[in-house]
Design a protein that fits this description.
Elements: E1 7-12, E2 15-21, E3 31-41, E4 44-56, E5 60-63, E6 77-79, H1 82-102
Antiparallel strand pairs: 1-2, 1-5, 2-3, 3-4, 4-6
């Protein structure tokens, strides 16, 4: 399901974030250990204040293909390719709208 270093979009603490698998996980695992990244600028994400998390596999919204891997200019920073970033923005806005409808 999720290989070590794979990138995905997931809901972490009610926020849509970019996550990176900290180890390989099988499809049967209910919990996934990840590094979390929050948006910083256009296509750039920084390690979040809580850089590691264990999330439910149900909270993963999408997994990016390995060929769409992000550039890591420095430790704690990711730069997504344009296509992956637009997918993140779309999922983030959809999730935000869903939360607004609930309240």
């Amino acid at each position: 399901m999720l290989k070590h270093g794979s990138l995905a979009v997931a809901v972490v603490q009610r926020q849509v974030m970019i996550v990176q698998a900290s180890r390989t996980h099988s499809q049967r695992e209910q919990w996934v250990d990840v590094y979390t990244y929050t948006p910083f600028g256009e296509r750039v994400f920084l390690a979040s204040p809580i850089p590691q998390a264990r999330i439910s596999s149900r909270d993963i919204l999408t997994i990016f293909p390995t060929e769409e891997s992000a550039c890591q200019p420095t430790t704690g920073m990711l730069e997504l390719p344009p296509k992956a970033f637009s997918e993140y923005v779309e999922l983030s806005s959809r999730t935000q709208q869903r939360h607004e409808q609930l309240f």
